[in-house]
Design goal:
8-stranded antiparallel beta sheet, Ribosomal Protein S5, domain 2, Arc Repressor Mutant, subunit A, 31% helix, KH_dom_type_1, single chain, elongated, 29% strand, 29 strands
């Protein structure tokens, strides 16, 4: 039965149609927010997937260009692989939803969001987040929801909720907060050095609004929600777990996992696995396929108990202690900039490349505000960084997400295009990984940009804190600088990047049903302490400020302004003039509609030559100006001199030599380079030159 539900949300109408479309999905919500339309569906398989020890959740966010009245560019006129924005949106939908499914649920679940119409004032990403939560909540899929999400901006110092397109353009904050009925479950943020107190205020203002949305969703669920279906539980058999613990002993497991060397720990767990495999080979062969999950459970309980009860970390550190840190610049001799940042067994090398503005990335998506990207941060996570072997298949969703997080953290401190007219790309190569490589890439990228001579406004550092919780809300411990094991077995990975002044990026992943305000406030303040230490004691001694100029192998860019009315003169018919300048000098030239001309090249002399040619082309020619040019045509009455690409003037035969000559060829030949003085324009409007009157 078709039912429609509506509420006012941040000054616009949110409407949810249930039973109107996609009736065969387990749950479907046809979402309208303003004129934005998204179809959100939730489907699950009838049976669990065999042979897996994880919950197989897939989240899809499909951008259709018809939603904004576009036909896809290129030869193939249909949408191809997901854009970066689609991948990042899928991740931000996944993160608050995943913890709320049963931990032992092994049925395949797909949350699909089809963007069908876009109103730029009503975010399709937010609409999809709400749609996924509603579709799952009303379905028969086991889910401990609902959740709600709110976007927060800051315009002129004031918080705005679910900002419009115009507000997003001016906003100094881009924050997304997802909540359950009791707690905050996901935070994603980018900000222009926002103080910690302001960020906390914004987070909980969003959480308060989320409660109104959750109340609205609960009315939908009460009206048309399906009864949740039963499922096959996939937990470790109690008999197996009890026998394993008695045979290995908690003391032996503690000794196996508590070491500061990841490879030693993994070797110890392999030994335990081999012992148990041998033990059950004959007596309980049916248990052998279940050993991986059983050992994981035993290892997790051991680590969590030691951290929570004894305040003992696997590598022996104090609760607030950061692993050994090191920073270096100029690792690679001929790149434009390079730096390496090491934190314990996490090591990232970032390379900076500078280019002409013509090399900015062009975006073909559904966001009308974002058409180009001047700064690009890419992140690579090869298998050797964790001691594994597998072929490289290009960046996955995790790599794209980590790259975007680092990019978001650094954008607020980058110089403007007018201050530094370059396209900028940084690539973070993870060389070794044991926890929080994304934050390591932020530190390495900051150093690399400074080494490349990019005049960033402030240094940015990133750090991650973790969490282990007990039975109650006030039974928890926050860990500074979590390593892989603490992330794996802990409840939270709270990443915060920023400068001395404030926060530039946040990403919070949790595995539990949300965080209290007390935990969030303490986590944010803990990252501030750690960030300050990294900035002052590790990064500043390595390189204290951006280099005053770009390196010898970097392109040099010089900008000049010309009259916009003369852009056509510089470009020439079908680009003939500008291409001639490029051919002569070997530079790259970009011209914007307002007359800003950027000349890019490695050799300063070539740049100056190109600038001189451009200035010559756009000059208002006056009597007495001296030029140097090449003889390109000889006639009976004189010669034509090309003094800049596409620009010629004529020297009458009487103005070639101080002595009388019978033929032009007696003095000049094609290709001769001569100096001429401008005599003004003749009756036909052509520029008239003299060779004999040059002083």
């Amino acid at each position: 039965m078709y039912k429609s539900f509506s509420m006012e949300l941040a000054g616009r109408t949110l409407t949810v149609d249930v039973g109107r479309v996609a009736a065969q999905a387990n749950g479907a919500a046809f979402m309208h927010y303003g004129d934005t339309v998204v179809l959100s569906t939730a489907t699950a398989s009838d049976k669990p997937r065999e042979g897996i020890d994880f919950f197989p959740l897939s989240v899809e966010y499909e951008e259709k260009l018809y939603a904004v009245g576009k036909i896809p560019g290129g030869f193939i006129k249909r949408e191809g692989k997901a854009s970066e924005n689609a991948i990042l949106t899928s991740r931000v939908i996944d993160r608050p939803m995943r913890p709320l499914f049963p931990k032992d649920y092994r049925n395949d679940v797909t949350l699909n969001n089809l963007v069908m119409c876009v109103d730029q004032d009503c975010s399709p990403e937010l609409t999809a987040m709400l749609g996924s939560a509603i579709a799952t909540a009303i379905s028969d899929i086991p889910f401990d929801g609902p959740t709600a999400s709110t976007m927060v901006g800051m315009v002129d110092g004031e918080l705005v909720f679910n900002p419009t397109s115009a507000q997003r353009e001016k906003s100094t904050l881009s924050l997304t907060v997802a909540s359950t009925k009791e707690k905050v479950i996901m935070i994603e943020a980018g900000a222009y050095e926002l103080p910690e107190d302001k960020m906390i205020e914004a987070i909980f203002a969003a959480h308060e609004l989320n409660q109104k949305v959750i109340a609205f969703i609960e009315t939908i669920v009460a009206d048309c929600g399906k009864e949740k279906h039963a499922y096959i539980k996939c937990d470790t058999p109690e008999e197996l777990y009890a026998d394993m613990v008695a045979f290995i002993t908690p003391e032996a497991m503690e000794e196996a996992v508590f070491t500061d060397v990841k490879q030693v720990r993994e070797g110890n767990i392999r030994e335990i696995t081999d012992k148990l495999t041998e033990r059950y080979q004959e007596t309980h062969p049916e248990w052998i396929p279940l050993l991986g999950e059983a050992i994981y459970k035993f290892e997790k309980k051991t680590v969590r108990k030691m951290i929570l009860k004894d305040h003992k970390r696997p590598d022996g550190r104090e609760i607030t202690q950061i692993r050994h840190l090191a920073a270096e610049v100029d690792i690679l001799p001929r790149t434009h900039g390079s730096a390496m940042f090491t934190r314990g067994q996490t090591q990232v090398l970032t390379i900076t490349t500078l280019g002409a503005l013509a090399e900015i990335q062009k975006l073909d998506g559904i966001d009308e505000n974002e058409k180009t990207k001047r700064y690009m941060h890419h992140y690579n996570f090869p298998s050797y960084s964790v001691g594994e072997t597998k072929p490289s298949r290009g960046p996955g969703r995790r790599e794209i997400g980590h790259g975007a997080l680092a990019e978001r953290a650094l954008v607020p401190v980058l110089p403007s295009e007018e201050e530094f007219p370059y396209a900028i790309r940084t690539v973070s190569e993870v060389l070794e990984s044991n926890g929080s490589t994304s934050q390591g890439s932020i530190c390495a990228s900051t150093l690399s940009l400074m080494a490349a001579g990019v005049p960033i406004k402030s240094m940015v550092a990133g750090i991650s804190v973790g969490l282990v919780t007990g039975e109650s809300d006030d039974d928890y411990i926050i860990l500074t600088d979590i390593q892989g094991l603490e992330d794996f077995f802990g409840d939270m990975d709270f990443k915060v990047a920023g400068t001395h002044k404030g926060i530039t990026a946040i990403q919070m992943d949790i595995k539990i049903h949300g965080l209290t305000r007390e935990i969030i406030e303490k986590a944010i303040r803990r990252t501030k302490e750690a960030r300050t230490y990294i900035l002052d004691d590790i990064m500043a001694p390595c390189i204290s400020s951006p280099r005053s100029e770009v390196g010898p192998y970097s392109p040099k860019i010089v900008q000049i302004k010309i009259d916009p009315a003369k852009i056509g003169d510089v470009v020439g018919q079908r680009g003939k003039t500008i291409n001639a300048i490029i051919d002569q000098t070997g530079v790259k030239i970009d011209i914007t509609d307002d007359g800003a001309v950027s000349v890019c090249g490695v050799d300063s002399d070539s740049i100056q030559k190109a600038i001189k040619l451009i200035q010559t082309i756009v000059a208002d020619f006056e009597e007495g100006q001296i030029f140097e040019g090449k003889v390109v045509s000889i006639k009976e009455f004189g010669a034509f001199i090309e003094f800049a690409p596409g620009k010629e003037g004529m020297v009458h035969i009487s103005k070639i030599s101080k002595e009388r000559i019978d033929k032009v060829e007696d003095v000049l030949t094609l290709g001769d380079v001569v100096k001429v003085v401008c005599l003004g324009k003749d009756k036909m409007g052509r520029i008239s030159f003299s060779i004999k009157d040059v002083k």
